[in-house]
User: Which sequence fits this backbone?
C-alpha cells in the first residue's frame, strides 16, 4: 500500500511564469520520485519527469530546458553536495558542480548560476561553468541569496559576514555595497528585477525594509506586526509597485511601493509622541490569511494579484485590488491536478 505523496520542494522560476514541485511517494519495496513543472497563472500542468530518486532543489531557468537539480528527500537521486545541470531536451545531465558541504540553494539567470553553501557562495558562468566569484558569508542555513533578472545589469545580494548586514555586488559597475539592514540576523531578502531595490527582513520578523542598492540608503520601511514571526518569503512585483511577504503567522501581506497607492497607517495621533516609530509605521495595503502552513508567494503579472502556495501543495489565486482583507479564492490541491 502506498504512502501519501510528499512534497520536498516548491519554487518559482526567475520571472514567476512557472514553478517546480518535487515529490516522492514510498511503497513497500520502492519509491516513486520526480518533479513537475506547472504554469503559475493561469494555473496549468506542464509536464512531469520521474526518476529513481528524489530532489531537494529543482531550479528551472525561465521556461527553458535547463534545470539545476540537487538531491533531497529520503531517497536522494544525487548527493546533497552536488549540483546537476539537467538538459530536458536531451534528457540527460550536461554538467555538474561538486562541493565539500551541503548545497543550501541554487539561483540562476541566463548568464550565471550561483550555488549557496552554509558559509560561502560561488558564482559561475552558466554556459561553461567557469567560476567568476566566491563570497564569504555569515552562517546562512537558509541559503539566502537573490539575483537580478535584468539582462543588462548583474546584481547579487546575500548576507555579509556581519550579522544583520546584506552584501550587494553590482558586477557591471564593479561595486560592492554592505548594507546595515537589521540588528539581528537576516531571515529573508529579495531584489527587484533590475537589482536597484533590496527588501530585507530579520529573524525578528516585525519590519520589512527596502534599500537602494546603489547608495545603500533605506528608502521605505513597512511593519508586518508587533509579534516575532518567521518570514518565509519576500517578493517584488515585476514593475516594483508592490512587495509581498508571508510568515508563520498565517498572513500574506502586500505593501504598496508606489506613491499613488497608500498603505495603511494607524490613527491615534496623540500616541505618536509615546511610540513614534510604531504609530508612524506603514502597515500592509492588503492581507490574505492562510491556515497554518509554510507558504511562498509571487506576483504572476503586473495586475493586483498574488499567487500563494503552501508547503503541502495548496494553491491560492488572490485578487488584492480592493485592499484590506482579501477573500480566499477556491484552493486547489496541486497533488490532485491531472498529470498528462
Assistant:
Amino acid at each position: 500500500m502506498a504512502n501519501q505523496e510528499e512534497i520536498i520542494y516548491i519554487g518559482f522560476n526567475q520571472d514567476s511564469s512557472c514553478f517546480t514541485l518535487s515529490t516522492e511517494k514510498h511503497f513497500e519495496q520502492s519509491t516513486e520520485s520526480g518533479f513537475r513543472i506547472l504554469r503559475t497563472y493561469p494555473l496549468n500542468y506542464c509536464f512531469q519527469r520521474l526518476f529513481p530518486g528524489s530532489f531537494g532543489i529543482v531550479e528551472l531557468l525561465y521556461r527553458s530546458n535547463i534545470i539545476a537539480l540537487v538531491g533531497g528527500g529520503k531517497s536522494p537521486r544525487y548527493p546533497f553536495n552536488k549540483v546537476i545541470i539537467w538538459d530536458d531536451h536531451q534528457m540527460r545531465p550536461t554538467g555538474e558542480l561538486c562541493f565539500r558541504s551541503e548545497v543550501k540553494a541554487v539561483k540562476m539567470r541566463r548568464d550565471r548560476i550561483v550555488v549557496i553553501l552554509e558559509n560561502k557562495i560561488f558564482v559561475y558562468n552558466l554556459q561553461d561553468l567557469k567560476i567568476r566569484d566566491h563570497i564569504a558569508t555569515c552562517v546562512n542555513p537558509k541559503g539566502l541569496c537573490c539575483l537580478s533578472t535584468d539582462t543588462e545589469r548583474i546584481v547579487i545580494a546575500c548576507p555579509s559576514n556581519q550579522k544583520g548586514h546584506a552584501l550587494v555586488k553590482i558586477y557591471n559597475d564593479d561595486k560592492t555595497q554592505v548594507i546595515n539592514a537589521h540588528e539581528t540576523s537576516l531571515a529573508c531578502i529579495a531584489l527587484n528585477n533590475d537589482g536597484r531595490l533590496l527588501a530585507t527582513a530579520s529573524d525578528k520578523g516585525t519590519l520589512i525594509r527596502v534599500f537602494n542598492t546603489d547608495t545603500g540608503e533605506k528608502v521605505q520601511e513597512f511593519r508586518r506586526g508587533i509579534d516575532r514571526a518567521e518570514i518565509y518569503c519576500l517578493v517584488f512585483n515585476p514593475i516594483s509597485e508592490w512587495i509581498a511577504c508571508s510568515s508563520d503567522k498565517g498572513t500574506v501581506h502586500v505593501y504598496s511601493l508606489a506613491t499613488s497607492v497608500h498603505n495603511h497607517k494607524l490613527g491615534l495621533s496623540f500616541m505618536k509622541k509615546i511610540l513614534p516609530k510604531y504609530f508612524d509605521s506603514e502597515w500592509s495595503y492588503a492581507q490574505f490569511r492562510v491556515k497554518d502552513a509554510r507558504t511562498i508567494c509571487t506576483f504572476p503579472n503586473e495586475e493586483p494579484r498574488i499567487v500563494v502556495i503552501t508547503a503541502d501543495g495548496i494553491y491560492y489565486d488572490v485578487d488584492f485590488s480592493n485592499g484590506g482583507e482579501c477573500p480566499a479564492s477556491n484552493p486547489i490541491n496541486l497533488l490532485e491536478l491531472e498529470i498528462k
Residues 130 and 317 are 40 Å apart (CA to CA).
